[in-house]
Amino acid sequence: MHGYAGRIVRFNLSNGSLSIDNVKESWARLFIGGRGLGLRLIMEMGLRLSDVNPYGPENPLIIATGPLGGTRLPLATRAIALFKSPLNNRWNYSTVGGTLGAYLKYSGLDALVLIGASSKPIYLIISDGKVEVRDAGELWGLDTVETERALKRSFKDSAVLTIGPAGENKVPYAAINHEEWRQFGRTGGGAVMGSKMIKAIVFLPSSKNVDVANAKEYEDLVKNLGKLSVTNPGEQSLRNGGTVRLIDVGNNMGFFPSLYWTKVVMPGWEKISWEKVLKPKYLLKNGACLYCPVACHKVVKSSSGGYDLEYETSMALGGLTGVNDPEELIELGELADRLGFDSISLGNSIAFIIYLGEKGIVKDAPKWGDYEGIRRLIIDAAYRRGLGELIALGTRGIGEKLGVSDLAINVKGLEPAGYDPRTLKGMILNNAVSERGADHLWSMAYSIDIAGQGGGRFATGSEKVTAVMDFEERSTLYDSMLLCKFGRYIYDWETMRKALNAVTGFNYTINELKDAAQRIIVMHRYMNGTTIEQDRLPPRWLKEPVMYEGKSYIVTEEEWASMVKEYYRLRGYDERGVPKPETLIKLGVLNND
């Protein structure tokens, strides 16, 4: 098939057995690749969610690319990891940029399925569809950057995945790192790798060619989309300010979560302003993923030389914890990445401890903005010692352990990113129905709200619901093709159709692509057994108002209920939020061999 390596490699870490399957053409057409293919592989394995221990050898770790992986189309070098999350016990996933989306394809496969577990630390070498196991005893204990640099000295032309001490110690929100500062960040893939005793995975190219169906159309798209990537206003804003520009946008618009979700404007935020401080005083250079002209990465000065600072890390380790010193923020972010954390979950968990300390519920908690205290907790969480053992549980785990679940901010056990739904109302629906949990990239509803689309940022009616659903479907295809979510400015439905058809030759219609997106969304919900109870939002968002420009904002029960019920109706779910049998049949979720 055009666009695909054509191979799914399955490797059992317990006994060393390897098998290779062809990618079924029917699956490629129906599920595209990436997220869709990975979820379908889990279904084929016959694994029931309740029977899988996230830290057990039965939990599969699937790393996949999509049909656009390895091509020179801009913003198409991404990969996805799928597994049962140890953080929220759901079939979950995370995506990453860098070089992996291409090098996975170049190493001769579309998906790597790892099951079982090693009895000692190892790293894997993947090349030409083969898997080699090597001893990682000397790497175990190193941080993520140290590990990758050590392996890159031996394997210069490669894509490397690593875990740090957080993954080794199975912190449930540990990340898998790549290209030093890129991450499979969310939902705990690093802990799954750690449970399998995999310190790193090295992907070596056997060929850097991708067979495309229509070479002329493909080359035209590469050229034209490359130009759009640097001239489109949305892409230009990313080139100029990356994600960290949202520190200024979020505080000026009043959606920047601060002091553990008690404020939407951070006290003293100007000290970490992108435009006033970080850009003029700390920016070293722009960075980019492979084949991407946008170059949205912003490498800033750190004590070690340079660190790629992102908005979500700035919000989580700065806004939520009250750290507003730029050098301290950069140091905390780099420390968290090197130790192998999802900085969003980490920052939320530490801020929750500070919040509970303010209420007298937790003793010896640091105060807001206490750099040394917060730094110590990051290290202690990685090694699961002292108060760090509590932080390592995540906010839902902390709430359950201390009997204060109503105070914990999470959805389905996942901590939210930097967009407060009390002032960005599209995020009500985004956070409610996301199968990952409070995941801002599930539908990118924040971008709809910030742009004033769907009736405006405070709208919750049918116009907003349909706008969010459209972005949800596009996001699903981005995760399956795979495309960067920042491609939303140039990859509309027609452009996605052209790109997929040029590469695969499948001649999709837009309606077929929308059906594929809905099929993947519904399949994921069906696999997790999600109901309306899991779609509820944290009580504090519904009870505690935030102030912005002298006005009080809150999420009302009516806003949540009306948006969710309209969404269920349009998705073909019953009133409990369960996909109707006729929806499953229509989409071919259960019968697609």
Question: Could you write a compact summary of the structure shown?
Answer:
The protein is of the alpha+beta class and 593 residues long. Helix 12 (326-339) runs parallel beside helix 14 (371-382). The mean pLDDT is 97.
Description:
The protein is α+β, with helices and mostly antiparallel strands and 593 residues long. 42% of the residues lie in helices and 14% in strands. The chain is built from 24 helices and 17 strands. The strands form four sheets. It has a six-stranded mixed beta sheet with strand order 2-1-6-3-4-5. A six-stranded mixed beta sheet has the order 8-7-12-9-10-11. Strand 14 and strand 15 form a beta hairpin. Helix 7 (215-231) crosses helix 8 (233-241), helix 7 packs antiparallel against helix 20 and helix 11 (311-319) runs parallel beside helix 13 (343-358). The chain is globular and about 60 Å long. It starts with 6 loop residues before the first strand and ends in a 6-residue tail after the last helix.
